[in-house]
Protein: Restriction endonuclease
Organism: Actinomarinicola tropica
Amino acid sequence: MSGAVRFGSWSHGDRVITRTPSGCLAPQAETRSTPRSQRRSGSSSPPGQGQHSAGRSRSARGFITGEANLHRPVADRHFALGMSTQPRNRARSLAAVPDDDAAAEVTADEDLPGAVGQPIIEGLPDGYTYGVTRHADIILQGAYSSRLNDLIASLDQFTISLDELRAGGGGRTKFVARFDQSLRDRRDTGVQVWGKQNITISKRLGFDDNLEEVARTRGHEIDMFGLGHLDDHLPGVAVEMEWNNKDPFYDRDLNNFSALHREGAIAAGVIVTRGPRLQELIGPVIRSKDGGLKYGQSSTHWDKLVPRVNLGGGGECPLLLVGIEPERVTGIELVVEVSQELAAAKERLDNWRDHYSDHREAQRDVRTLREAAKAKIPPVK
């Protein structure tokens, strides 16, 4: 071919790989017509073509002539949403988890985008502690106001009874299911916009229109996923309530939010959990069936969540954190009474010399006071 430039080439299977003037490797559009069986057996090629082995080798002629045909690889991602009836996978996350002492020391400047700070928007219901990262509240109010209004309405009507707090474990907690259902019942012009969802991320790679799927990942099921808009479902809003699970479940949720936000599937993530004042109040008081503390420090609550986020949990996904506080619990007055009696008993033992002449006598008396206080809220059988 007149004026053509020679560049190095070799064969690989049915394709001829050409080194272009820029130094890139580009496959030729044409493929060889020689049957694969002939190439493997080393039989001759059609006239005018050199012989090539099935492996990576130099052509018989060593070079080919022709205009450079550069194909740039392209990749695209797409998402698939599907309702799931499978039970939640409670696998333990492998992410690093700060221990109790380290978590207590984690502090962050609220002005940093990834640190937990106070929300700016108004109209959030009372009875909760709130925290935001990366302006999640402003994003929700400005771009996803319908989903934010749904969330506010569900939080505003949400309550827990003392009997529900004391109820034994096993299965999905009643008031958590009630909260999810309150979101599921929300409608946008008659259309259901909230529900359990699994989001699948697939990646395709290839040349021009010849794309092949090279990876497919199914994210963890989201308890409540709100469609972004009726005419454009993604990105949406993900909501998880972690009431009394093991605290590594936070890592699972935060990792899931980070991955889905990075791929454009969610605009913000919301985690609802026990607030710091509620945990301080019920932690030492409410007991499980076996008599141990039902809401221990190693379970999911505010002071386990915030340090994880301040350490980078959730990546660049904007987060709205919601802590349920005592004002949302009906009948909490009895817990307050028992908590005060336990605190008074502890103070009496700490200052036993003011009340007793003998330390053993003080211990016996305080033990009686503590047992009497705990008996007011016995474990639910």
In short: The CA atoms of residues 97 and 267 lie 25 Å apart. The first strand starts at residue 6 and ends at 12. The chain has three domains: 6-65, 76-330, 333-374.
